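Minutes, project check-in

Agenda point 3 was the complex the collaborators sent over. CS summarized: two entities, 814 residues total, and the question is how they sit relative to each other. Sequences were read into the notes so everyone works from the same version.
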Amino acid sequence: MGMNFLVGQSGGPTAVINSSLAGVYATARQSGAGKIYGMQYGIQGLLDEKLVDLDEKLGSNLSIELLKRTPSSYLGSCRYKLPTPEENEAVYHKLFALFAKYEIDAVLYIGGNDSMDTIAKLSAYGASIGSPIRFIGVPKTIDNDLMLTDHTPGFASAGKFIATITKELICDSNVYDLQSVTVAEIMGRHAGWLAACASLAKGDDCDGPDMILLPEVAFSTSRFLEQVEKIRREKNNIIIAASEGVKTEDGTFLCDLGGESGPLDAFGHKAALSGTSRYLAGLIQQHLGCKTRAIEFSTLQRCASHLTSRIDINESFQVGGAAVQAALNGETGRMSAIIRQSNVPYQSICQTVDVQAVANKEKVIPRSWISEDGTQLTAEFEAYARPLIQGEQLPIFVNGVPQHIRL
Amino acid sequence: MGMNFLVGQSGGPTAVINSSLAGVYATARQSGAGKIYGMQYGIQGLLDEKLVDLDEKLGSNLSIELLKRTPSSYLGSCRYKLPTPEENEAVYHKLFALFAKYEIDAVLYIGGNDSMDTIAKLSAYGASIGSPIRFIGVPKTIDNDLMLTDHTPGFASAGKFIATITKELICDSNVYDLQSVTVAEIMGRHAGWLAACASLAKGDDCDGPDMILLPEVAFSTSRFLEQVEKIRREKNNIIIAASEGVKTEDGTFLCDLGGESGPLDAFGHKAALSGTSRYLAGLIQQHLGCKTRAIEFSTLQRCASHLTSRIDINESFQVGGAAVQAALNGETGRMSAIIRQSNVPYQSICQTVDVQAVANKEKVIPRSWISEDGTQLTAEFEAYARPLIQGEQLPIFVNGVPQHIRL
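CS then shared the predicted structure for the full assembly.
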């Protein structure tokens, strides 16, 4: 009798988190698993016993292909912070009772660093009570801010989309023979990985953004205006790619300087930063007096499954499958990670790492990958990121729009 | 000796305006044209004698393919309002002197209704002075608001992109087991054609937007809140697609109610409406107290050449070619238009129409194509729009991003 699996998705959606789910399901099924359950709406839904039998939902090969092409979390998600056992042991009693009821042998959780925190806590608690259940994390986040994995599934597709629309936006901005400044706002709370991908727009047919503002480089209004003024003397249409997380030396987000602030989420994070591009456009308008516009790339960055990286789709599938394999091998408290083997040609493998060392930490862009003046990325970043956006996975178009699968 | 052509692009960019330029160039070249000049930055650039010899730029077949895949206006654009001869005849003297200098036989102008106004004025002036030069308009606008053409080149690709990202956004919005309202703001100044395309997201895998707000239906706050409240009783996550041009009974744009207003362009149009989605999200937040977010689809709608409609790309090319043919036939003061032959199967042909009857007019969605309560589109709209978004033209990906061509 094969192992019974329970898999959930958590945190913000991405364009490829369902490819990891497909990797978990397909690998578990091919490995002779018993039951494969999905938790609806993550751990929070599990606490309400919202489980689905994935064999009933994903039984056909076409379903797997559609799942790989469906953005957001097929199973639904949550932003539930699992308390420590000291804070609330009853939650653990309830969860482990549910695991027992459904005879779960392995719990796989696909998500970002908060989700890895959940896996770390569950595996630690499981060990403390001598449970044989294996807890494995599957990384996911467009933000690329997880430790111990070369990059995170979801990052490359978001990066490819950002590079593509930045190129298109630059074409759009160059259209009039007028002075103009366009500020594009890109996701990324504390790490600038996604904004940095705007640099990948650059090629023989495109100059790329004139300036990229990252959370890793403290923002100075006077230096910024000097830099814009300098570029303005050389060219007509200026493009600035700005991370939503750009902040001043004292850590104040630009969007808060603009007076626009939002509520905190369950993890104490700012739920939705926005206003950075409008703040910057306002600043330029006020000081330099030229035409400006602010564009937020918005939620599309994380859900544009119509344009994904084939490398990312494949790796997302692989980390899901590798997590199943780790559970079969008896591992627990681990996260399936991507380990880069070489840049040229690009090759990677999956290995597991200690989930405790991933939980609640954030990886930022090394300062040496950013130009001295803080406004461009170096060749090291290009060598790191360019291979990840290679190849495309085409949607299955039905009636003119990409077909998805829903629960 | 073949005819000499001069072609320009004007008004806001689209994802396929360059496909029309490709159609003009390729058809003129194959028809044995003499010189084929492009005006840089439209009529405004022409007045500064900014001309390029297109044979030097577009000589290879690969260039034509890249041109069809490059968004925005390859030649550059302008928003120049040609004065009447009564207002400023010197401009006409200058333009016709330039036509004489370069021995131009036909002037083709790719643009929206303001550009058709330019062609109407030039052809009328030409006739008044007995000039043999032919002036032909080539329609272009994502807004689909031109008269006498079944639809406008550019509309279908923008509509396909909007339908696609609306589908993706709906997946994204359904991810949490929470009450939420998402308001997506879609381009369209006085006509709701683009916002209406959000309805094309609907299919067996997607319910489509719960409500679509159009400029064609006067906005009432109380009715709107009632409608949202009614939907909220039935489902958790609500999606509203709103045209940027939604206005109240007395004609006030919602974005102006929000206190955000913008400057007028050279045609007296509001240059950039924005704030409609934020206004609506604020309204819902205030009255219904649930989680809301406002998303602007922004400039991407008109420059997302990575996802275009194959029908649109082909027709854009054809109207360009048909304009060349009209000039060769000795026509002037005409616009090349798309005439639909049938819906099933979808077939269309190009014919010329009187450009005077197109200039400065706007076509809106028939009220009978909008549901009685004003929040959905009917089967008539579906029958009209669905065929137009069929098929895709794939980008040529180089180094992970779509390759473009630039002047």
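Noted in discussion: Residues 155-173 of chain B form the longest helix (19 residues).
Follow-up: revisit at the next meeting once the mutant set is ready.
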